[in-house]
Amino acid sequence: MEKTTVRTVVRGVGHNVPPRSVTNVELSKLMDTSDEWIIERTGIRERRFVEAGTTTTDLALPAIEMACQRAGIKPQDCDMIIGATLSPDFFFPGIGTVLQHKLGMGHVPALDIRAQCSGLIYGLATADAYIRSGMAKRILLVCSEVQSPILDKTNRGRDMAVLFGDGAGALVIESQPCAGEPPRANNQVRGVIDSIMGSDGSGAQLLFLKAPGSIVPGFMTQAAVDAGDIHPKMDGRVVFKNAVTRMVEAANAMLERNGISPSQLDLVLPHQANLRINEAVREKLGIAEDRVFNNIQKYGNTTAATIPICMSEAVEQGKLKEGHLVLTLAFGAGFTWGCNLIRW
Ligand code: UT7
Q1: What's the rounded Cα separation, in Å, for the pair 35 and 12?
Q2: Which of 58, 64, 99, 133 has the fewest CB atoms within 10 Å of its CB?
Q3: Does 1 score more than 50 pLDDT?
């Protein structure tokens, strides 16, 4: 029997951010910081915070609804769900199963990816592998973060607290038959062309949240709370340098192995951690300013959700259109990094 070839197509993308905007000035009332410092060092002007009680899966539901509506399907039409988050509703289980139940999806496989800011990259690469192997036909990929409650909004945590926000994005990823060539950079066949993923665990404690965790005697203790280990911590300068180096490395490897030049990319969707990181990466790659989509100014760093939110807004604004050659690009805690090349 002849083997049927399939390709992986993003059928729909959606996003959701909480309505409550928190400005830099508001944060400066809680800690020793300023609007000028935050804008100059990061580009962030405001971010969204959920109201108390809103969970990561609650925030994801409208994003999923938007993605499904744009794809013309229902969540129940998916045969797998992949969650990507560093801020799940529970320490375990992950958001995949919680969403499976909330969406009434039937007993489909549900898994969570723990790749932090690279969640979309790893999630899309994983979905692509499941689809091309024939193990799944239509996958819901959900990237959602409720990070505002874990930030230390005092002077002690000011380097982290000003950076992060809450948000969610979702993708409907589908298997489609491939009659001729698979999607490639040099043809117009829609679909995921290639993915690159990398990691370096020597950086695990340079951007991390320690407690609760098995490294803490007793998993969680009052001492861990008192030491501030329940809040994320980072060596900002080291992370910054690694982010630029790894993102440039990954993008160049992707361009080279697919035989394309930066000018052939219609749009780059980078992770939103710092406008200065994205500007340095853009300059080093030699990509025109109008080919890079940024929205960190409005939302801060929403970790796994940044790229799907960018994708969804780029579609809405007519900047991401069918046939475009798109590069996603991320670096984050782990360390993890990577990129996907997609014919949209
Ligand atoms: O999403 C995962 C990946 N995350 C990232 O890629 C983030 C990477 N890192 C960064 O974006 C930047 O390193 C930061 C935005 C976190 C910090 O910017 P920076 O230009 O690297 O500043 P710095 O850490 O070198 O600190 C400069 C000064 C320090 O004071 P001293 O030591 O020079 O007196 C900090 O204490 O700024 C101080 N500072 C602040 N000042 C006002 C740190 N946080 C704040 C703050 N407001 N919120």
Answers
A1: 36
A2: 133
A3: no
Contact (CB, 8 A) for 27 and 161: yes
pTM over 0.70: yes
Q: What is the secondary structure of 109-170 as a DSSP string? A: -EEEE--GGGHHHHHHHHHHHHHHHTS-SEEEEEEEE--GGGS--SGGGHHHHTTB--EEEE
Q: Quick one: average pLDDT of 2-21?
A: 91
CATH class of segment(s) 191-343: alpha beta
Kindly tell me if the per-residue pLDDT of 3 is higher than 70: no
C-alpha 40 to ligand 1 mean position (Å): 11
Q: How far is the CA of 291 from the centre of ligand 1 (A)?
A: 27
Burial class of 317 by CB neighbour count within 10 A (0 to 12, 13 to 18, 19+): exposed
Domain positions in the chain: 5-178, 191-343
CATH 3.40.5.50 fits 5-178, yes or no: no
**E-state strands within the chain:** 6-16, 21-23, 46-48, 80-84, 110-113, 138-145, 167-177, 191-199, 207-208, 233-234, 267-270, 325-332, 336-343
AA identity, residue 75:
P
pLDDT confidence band for 272 (50 / 70 / 90): very high
310 annotated active-site: no
Expressed in angstroms and rounded, the spacing between residue 344 Cα and the centre of ligand 1 is 36
- Whether 101 is catalytic is no
Ligand 1: which residue has its CA nearest to atom 41?
Answer: 33
122 burial type by CB count under 10 A (0-12 exposed, 13-18 middle, 19+ buried): buried
